[in-house]
Design a protein that fits this description.
CATH architecture of the largest domain in chain C: 3-Layer(aba) Sandwich
Oligomer: heterotetramer
Strand order of the largest sheet of chain A: 11-10-12-13-15-14-20
Strand order of the largest sheet of chain C: 2-1-3-4-6-5-11-7
Bound molecules: thiamine diphosphate, iron/sulfur cluster, magnesium ion
Strand content of chain A: 15-25%
Structural class of chain A: alpha/beta
CATH class of the largest domain in chain C: Alpha Beta
Radius of gyration of chain A: 27 Å
Radius of gyration of chain C: 23 Å
Chain lengths: ~625, ~625, ~350, ~350
Amino acid sequence: MPSLVPREELEAVVVRFAGDSGDGMQLIGGRFAQVTALAGNDLATFSDFPAEIRAPAGTTFGVSAYQINFGSRVIKTSGDAPDVLVAMNPAALRVELEGLRDGGLVIVDSGAFTERSLHKAGYESNPLADGGLAKYRTLEIDVSKLTLEAVKDSGLSRKEALRCRNMWTLGLVSWMYGRDRQPTIDWLHEKFAARPELAAANVAALDAGHAFGETAELAEAGHAYTVEPAHLTPGLYRTVTGGEALAWGLVIGAHLAGLKLVFSSYPITPASQVLHTLANLRQYGVVTFQAEDEIAAICASIGASYAGSLGVTSTSGPGLALKAEALGLAVSAELPLVVVDSQRAGPSTGMPTKTEQSDLHQAVFGRSSDSPLVVVSARSPSDCFETAIEAVRIAIKYMTPVIVLSDTYIANAAEPWMIPDVDGLPRFPVKHRTEPAGFHPYLRDAATLARPWAVPGTPGLEHRIGGLEKDFASGDISYDPANHQRMTEARAAKIAGVADDIPPQGVEDGQQHGRLAVVGWGSTYGPISRAVGNLRDEGLDVSHIHIRHIWPLPKNLGDLLGCFEHVLVPEMNTGQLTTLLRSAYLAPVEGLNKVSGQPFRIAEIEAAIRTRLGA
Amino acid sequence: MPSLVPREELEAVVVRFAGDSGDGMQLIGGRFAQVTALAGNDLATFSDFPAEIRAPAGTTFGVSAYQINFGSRVIKTSGDAPDVLVAMNPAALRVELEGLRDGGLVIVDSGAFTERSLHKAGYESNPLADGGLAKYRTLEIDVSKLTLEAVKDSGLSRKEALRCRNMWTLGLVSWMYGRDRQPTIDWLHEKFAARPELAAANVAALDAGHAFGETAELAEAGHAYTVEPAHLTPGLYRTVTGGEALAWGLVIGAHLAGLKLVFSSYPITPASQVLHTLANLRQYGVVTFQAEDEIAAICASIGASYAGSLGVTSTSGPGLALKAEALGLAVSAELPLVVVDSQRAGPSTGMPTKTEQSDLHQAVFGRSSDSPLVVVSARSPSDCFETAIEAVRIAIKYMTPVIVLSDTYIANAAEPWMIPDVDGLPRFPVKHRTEPAGFHPYLRDAATLARPWAVPGTPGLEHRIGGLEKDFASGDISYDPANHQRMTEARAAKIAGVADDIPPQGVEDGQQHGRLAVVGWGSTYGPISRAVGNLRDEGLDVSHIHIRHIWPLPKNLGDLLGCFEHVLVPEMNTGQLTTLLRSAYLAPVEGLNKVSGQPFRIAEIEAAIRTRLGA
Amino acid sequence: MHSVMPVEKLAPQDFASDQEVRWCPGCGDYAILKALLRTLAEIGATKEKTVFISGIGCASRFPYYISSYGFHTIHGRAPAIATGVKLANPDLDVWVVVGDGDGLSIGGNHMLHVLRRNVDMQILLFNNEVYGLTKGQYSPTSRMGTRSPSTPQGSVENPVSAAAFALGSGGRFVARSVDTLRDHLPEVLKRAHAHRGASFVEIFQNCLVYNDGVFADFTAKEVAADAQIHVAHGRPLVFGADRGRGLRLNPGAIELEAVTIGEDGVREADVLVHDETNRTLATMLAAMEPPHLPVALGVLYCDPAPSYERSVMAQIDEATSRLPNGDLNALLRQGHTWRVEA
Amino acid sequence: MHSVMPVEKLAPQDFASDQEVRWCPGCGDYAILKALLRTLAEIGATKEKTVFISGIGCASRFPYYISSYGFHTIHGRAPAIATGVKLANPDLDVWVVVGDGDGLSIGGNHMLHVLRRNVDMQILLFNNEVYGLTKGQYSPTSRMGTRSPSTPQGSVENPVSAAAFALGSGGRFVARSVDTLRDHLPEVLKRAHAHRGASFVEIFQNCLVYNDGVFADFTAKEVAADAQIHVAHGRPLVFGADRGRGLRLNPGAIELEAVTIGEDGVREADVLVHDETNRTLATMLAAMEPPHLPVALGVLYCDPAPSYERSVMAQIDEATSRLPNGDLNALLRQGHTWRVEA
Ligand SMILES: Cc1ncc(C[n+]2csc(CCOP(=O)(O)OP(=O)(O)O)c2C)c(N)n1
Ligand SMILES: Cc1ncc(C[n+]2csc(CCOP(=O)(O)OP(=O)(O)O)c2C)c(N)n1
Ligand code: SF4
Ligand code: SF4
Ligand SMILES: [Mg+2]
Ligand SMILES: [Mg+2]
């Protein structure tokens, strides 16, 4: 039912919904993303919520925001400065306005701008009245009042009725971008199946917001837009968050290996989503175990791998720190293990709901003694799926722990994902050792240097392993000096050898040589990719290289970097990949470091590139 | 009572005592070191004992050895290949013979070479008979029989009597090097005051061994030597092990700061000695706490520092891994803290009684997020004293955790130490904040960037701190992006600033520039120093640089390294300082890596230097 | 001779800090905070000597709201950090605040050891049977069958009983109260404070976002009288609306049973008298659960013993008294030394 | 139809590995090893299904000496690793061997949780009241006053009672024996093995190097009869050389007392009968100490409940039965999807 209002065509838009934690912003954001995806746009979203569970209403620290960038072109980030800010109360306006682009549109619920709420947000005077919004276009609507009117027949209490404000707002924004309401209506009926009066009220609010757009001459005021479908690869799509994609990647990875997945974890922000997703998959035989702490979680995973399953554990930075000793055991015992680290801002408790990429050093170096293992990283929510499978593949092929680095941004962000056909994915079935003849628990495969995986329950392979040094040949405890040297070198060589088994480092965008390579890893993918793309469009000589395999590094990387005059490494830390690259290649790699708990903006990276190129 | 036998004069000798764990080798080694020190020689010793508490008698894995290098010149290591091996049984011979220099002297108790004990040691035939000792000079003496004879009037059981074999041997070796027996006799009387029959028997054995030398024409056989006193700086001396010196350094450091020392630890080899030493110092007001684990130990130390004392914890590599999360808290809370890590061979449990330097990466990088702190290292047993004081000084001045890296070798080795005058050491008294005016818990000192140390109990300074990010000015919890950036940078700048407060890196030996710099840290000091010295004597252009401050690195180090054509870094790990230097200076630093659980030999380093210099 | 300044006694609000309280509106933590402010005033606490140490969790936000010294540390480690504080300065009055996850999941080991060592501090465990801060996963105190994001089919774990664990760990003061028991809770807190050594107080706390009403079976107004028993040393163990019910020991079965006085020949004298120094009785009281038995609240167990940090200080005093002027030069010169002459 | 191969029953020595045993000559661990080899033979264990998991310490060397699967892990974590093993393969027969430091100091938390979760395994805690492997420091079970390298003036800590802790943690099988009780120990181990769920067995073990004779007050031949009571379910709690002494409940004081049958009017019927399903009785038995009361040995408590890993597997079976062909393509396609056409 296309409406006939004249609509301005846009290539891409960034909308940010902001309100109180209790205002349901994550919910309408998610719904809007869903219908936007159905409309065929590419998109990326980002949730920015407070550490408090439910901060007191109206406070600035209780503001919860959801940002979506969608367009008819390929979308790579959730957007720099929003074009549109929806602010449900003064606190949201106060916290979020700064981020809006100059000339952007502010939509406010003027009904929520009471003296009390202004005061709570720390406003001395009403910004709607004092010219504080002069730099922006504004749409002041008494959403509260209009919502109450829309649902007045629902029999809800005033408090309950006001909870529908978010749906009214969603209705309005849906109208603005010409979005179909039906999927949301269906969803509301399903969600509130047990309380039809709530479903009805929410639908009424949604409809009213939508109708407001149609009738209030907003189109004439220039608030009606259209965003054409993007040219996406044909296929079946869904939206995924990084947390979900990681969980599914682990399940599929175990399936491709033919192993039972035993996932042990201790809740921690932002990693818990992986636990929650997997806990819901018992029907696929997935075992999840909420352990008493991070140490028990990794130990149970090690136990599970020892007993022949795929042991996986998941955590965030402080939890990874706690797992360091047991990781050393996994290195020494040479058991497969996947450890997911969803990084967050630190040090210590830091800012638990904010993003950072600052566990790279910990992942590569954070254990006692020489304890080499493999580190891979995911660049986006959907990339978590592939990264998880790659981690499983390496872990079992090389009998080694593999750390997967994700981060808060990736864990919570959502994007469209073309769903793969599981049956079409390459399998890598595990062969547990069963043959007793010639068996020694540490006798390595000549090619991979992996030891055999001999699982308790297998007759004739009874043996003892542990964290003490082992004889290279017999696997018995050994304190022999030459043997320790040999085993230390073998452990290092095994991990170094993984570099032969991964794709050579490619260039995402641009030439294989030139004036400047921007080298990223993890969730900086979006902003780097867009920034490099934009500047290449301007004709600048810049390339984008994005690294998945952090340790070992791809074999050709040193040579590749050598083909550029400058190498710039944007990282959300104080320069951790930079250290690694400098040390590995003695290349004059320069860092661009942001440690604010917020993802890079495209403009920040563009500016840095321009500076380097004197452009 | 100088004896009149003709004695060959030696500049330096290496003697290794080896026997069963129960044979008392560590004891006679220690006694011999004592009398050697009293004789005015410089010396260094090294204990090499099994992980087993008391392995079954006669097994190869139960062999315990004590090596001493002493001389009339300055002694820098416990020696490469021993000149003399004392082997109390076949197992000791089997394990230790390989290390003896060609043509060296083997002294064996032939009485212990029974069929049974040969078999236990894995000998198919008797090496005393089958020519297996052809490469060496030998002294086969039935020490067992001679001891039994010497003590036959003591009333001891045969078993007890045989325990005196070690004293007989000590008597013999004392004679060989013209050592005075009296201090040992006094010591035996003191030690066995409660059991005079044991004292008498041991003295009798000692005397008998000594007399054997005098009477058995050993002098004519070329087994009598003399080693002149070394030219040591005048002063009062004692021998110390690294464990003792570290403990005392902490006590003196706390004293110089005017703080109570609260030391919390969980036992672990080879760190326990520090706990044991300090537990004996309650009379100096030292509080020691054996915690339930390493995490509790560091947490109690953090609590103690928070409450205004000097909190210190001590451990080895696997324990440091467990402390990583709490170290992050100390970084975030910006509290002074000293963490001692006596490194051992890993990964994981590894070889707990063997030495390694492989926790450098863990110390510098092994925490979640960007968590900068200070790392210093000790180069020798006596240097532990100064290093500990330096760690205390930095920790309290900069309100930061400081990790002190020692290792198994240093912890157990002993060397003469000129005892300092405590009253002459520079004090650095702490000023806890007491002034409420203008107090904010995170308001930094402009020069050091340290925050004030405001201690519970101080009226008017009540405040709250924690691991969440704090506002730069008020110290309140803050999730502000710009503030997090600023605080992250401030924490990094504070630690980087310590580089302004440490001595510029000097050159131990050699020119400030040239063809090759050998750069070491920690316990490689001895072998590097001797190797460089030897080759400089030969005229080679090589210098020795030894780093105490691992993080931050001395400010001039990059320039200094730039003055050399080659930089070689010998380390007992796979190249950890190497990584740091390459990354910091993009200097083509090359590693010489030994990971066998054994210290470098001088010859190994000499060979590597020669190769580099083509000499 | 000395003129003692009369210290002005502080009011509850004097102990409130200037920080905005960041719990969900309606959270049981607010009531506990209120009870604690009142307790601090009533015991005549001084701000500068009072230290609150917490771990991580909703409960562990507590120190921010008290205008004393406060340290919000890391998950599970508060008892260990508090131990260090007491070893540095035994004169500080240390309160530890932890959640059920903080204190009994990741922090269970430190809890065991601080209790058996008997370090002098008050440990308040806010038990809401859930992980609040991480959004609602079940905790070690959650009942079997609890559905949560990590146990969508219901938990299959036998929960730990905080009080039983504290007693099994050798705790020498174990008490219980409820967030909403406005007078009972401060009384229990005062007893805990008066106890020298580690005092363990379990406070049942309602998390209205993730576990609302989980204690309603004994805290709801309608059932409270019959489902709670408030124990007091030397007083009969009676409960019920008219205090007409009591606990009796069945000596054959060695278990407690709830009886109605006057029924089945049960006389008042048959009802047990609470002896807070009896660990066995305390263990039995701790194990009681509705519907068959009431939940025991109050001081279940209190049997003082020397506290750890005092014993350590006594050893130090003894040792230093033997060596009054601890000469550090002498320390370094102990044992064998020799002089090298110029 | 099937012809079942008669499996050859293995002898104790068949379970001995080829590794050289590396304990100090005379260590109590040897006797325990012997008892265990015998137990394995008697229960008809198969080598391939038997898994020994240990932490670090002298005790934890154990797995090397058994010719089954063995994993010598890291300090304190054996129960957690064993939990993972059972979750991967519930059919394995898992034994955990830890020392008092390993199991109750660094590993206390995992012990608590494995016990309350009731994961099916036998946990053998070798209690020698000392840290053997690290050369003699006192441990959490060391008695007050213990002098050791880290407590030269004597420990001032109240020790934890392993059995009381296990009971307080919700353990459902708690037993005790002594290294040298050649017949008693295998019997206890067999009971532990028969119990489905976590079985906790404390074995008093003599460390002759660092703590020789620490249990002599109840293990020495001369005193054993009067200082030990061997409890058995349904049997009167009697002890003494001629079994002339017994335990009686003093119901007023709610405590156990040792009585002599026939003296002071004490009749046999006054002596308590052991009920291993009574946690209160077990707790009282666990607390008994010489000289006033004998040390209780045997199965103090056994009251089975569903084991954790079985409950998890039951949930999985239930869930997979609802979705027999777990189609992973369907998993990825759950919820909203849309198709982009070419
Ligand atoms: C090392 C570590 N692991 C996990 C977390 C995440 N975390 C924070 S609070 C918490 C549990 C909260 O539950 P509880 O202790 O019961 O406190 P409540 O929030 O219910 O008051 C967890 C798992 C963390 N902060 N640190
Ligand atoms: C993380 C860690 N901390 C400390 C140690 C050192 N350590 C090894 S065994 C042990 C305690 C041994 O005592 P116990 O568990 O009672 O076993 P026992 O040797 O007495 O049989 C300690 C502290 C270690 N190996 N790992
Ligand atoms: S989540 Fe629960 S416990 Fe936490 S503040 Fe909210 S109501 Fe309280
Ligand atoms: S130290 Fe003690 S426990 Fe360890 S092996 Fe020796 S006797 Fe046994
Ligand atoms: Mg809780
Ligand atoms: Mg022990």
